[in-house]
Design a protein that fits this description.
six-stranded mixed β-sheet, Enolase-like, domain 1, 350 residues, alpha+beta
């Protein structure tokens, strides 16, 4: 397997590099930290609902939609990101994503142990400290081109203040509560040990630990062709049409006339937050939008779930049957999210 190792790369390039490799079908293990801060939103999220976009513009923080599930997060040079890129015909890639999460969490858990921190895997896709169960790493996965990609990070330190500020809140009085919640529930190497090991030291440990699973690495560099492809991919992925592609069509609950209404729903499942917006006419779903920070593979499956609900009678049985059929027929994986979770997010209880 090829190894692409970088200390830092300019902002968004730190993320679009692994997208480029995956689109080209190049199996690889990559390591990188963003040279400059960016805000990364999950593939299924509505950026306008999750992120304070005005603040990001004021502070020159680029907002980037990755083709990986999960939530919005602030990224900077104090985080070392690892990416495992596997072609779909690789035996590892054939595993269920929940099993892949657990297996590929072993190297970062062992890395934290070498740094003096005992951690463990917490389903669906978190690594937490063993004693206090504070989150110290979030992981994600997605299918990009002919590949399945697994991502995670080692958190040397974290800018709690900026993270709390970029999150969109319904009222500013919640901002302090969010800040406290993040500080209480998210930790870092520095917070746990009082030490700041170098990024190079972290990368060396990660390479040793991941090679035990992935095999010997072959050092590689980006070719001129890959660099040009990365520029093109970066341009497309920073286009507002892509960044805001999952913007919910109906931003609230409103009765237009008798028999016609719009309903906004939200539900926290074990596998992540689910937001929905539904247009209903004469007790049937006309249009449904779904967003959130969950994992779903293949990523093309979400529009198929949405489209399958068009015209369906808005009852628990009918909607559940449609969603279940799509998940089965398309062989979708949505770890930590059940049919009941989708129903609750859609506000369908009977």
């Amino acid at each position: 397997m090829k190894l692409f190792e970088f200390d830092t790369l300019p902002g968004v390039y730190s993320m679009t590099t692994f997208h480029t490799l995956a689109r080209e079908g190049i199996e690889a293990f990559s390591l990188v930290s963003p040279e400059t801060p960016i805000i990364s939103v999950g593939y299924f999220q509505d950026a306008s609902l999750e992120i304070d976009l005005d603040y990001c513009v004021q502070k020159n923080l680029p907002v980037f939609r990755r083709e990986i599930g999960g939530g919005g997060v602030y990224l900077d040079r104090n985080q070392i990101f690892y990416h495992v890129i596997l072609r779909r015909d690789n035996p590892l890639a054939s595993r269920r994503i929940s099993d892949l999460y657990e297996m590929l969490s072993i190297p970062p858990i062992e890395t934290y142990r070498e740094l003096g921190i005992e951690t463990k895997f917490r389903p669906v896709n978190d690594i937490v400290t063993s004693d206090s169960e504070r989150k110290i790493s979030g992981e994600g996965a997605g299918d990009i081109g002919p590949c399945v990609v697994f991502v995670g990070s080692i958190m040397l330190d974290f800018d709690y203040d900026t993270m709390a500020r970029v999150i969109r809140v319904p009222d500013e009085k919640f901002r302090d509560k969010i800040h406290k919640s993040i500080k209480d529930n998210v930790t870092t190497v520095f917070k746990e040990t009082g030490k700041r090991p170098s990024r190079q030291e972290i990368r060396e440990i990660l390479k040793r630990k991941f090679s035990a699973i992935l095999g010997k690495f072959e050092e590689a560099e980006l070719t001129n062709e890959l660099i040009e492809q990365r520029k093109d991919i970066t341009s497309k992925m920073m286009d507002p049409q892509f960044v805001f592609k999952r913007t919910m069509k109906k931003p609230g609950e409103l009765r237009i006339r008798s028999g016609v209404e719009y309903i906004l729903g939200i539900h926290k499942a074990p596998g992540g937050l689910i937001r929905t917006a539904s247009e209903i006419k004469n007790s049937r779903l006309v249009d449904v939008s779904i967003s959130g920070d969950f994992t779903l593979l293949p990523i093309q499956g979400l529009p198929k779930i949405e489209n399958s609900l068009s015209g369906v009678e808005r009852t628990k049985g009918e909607v559940a049957n449609r969603i279940e059929r799509v998940i089965s027929d398309e062989e979708l994986q949505v770890p930590g999210v059940s049919i009941e979770d989708f129903l609750l997010a859609l506000k369908i209880e009977e």
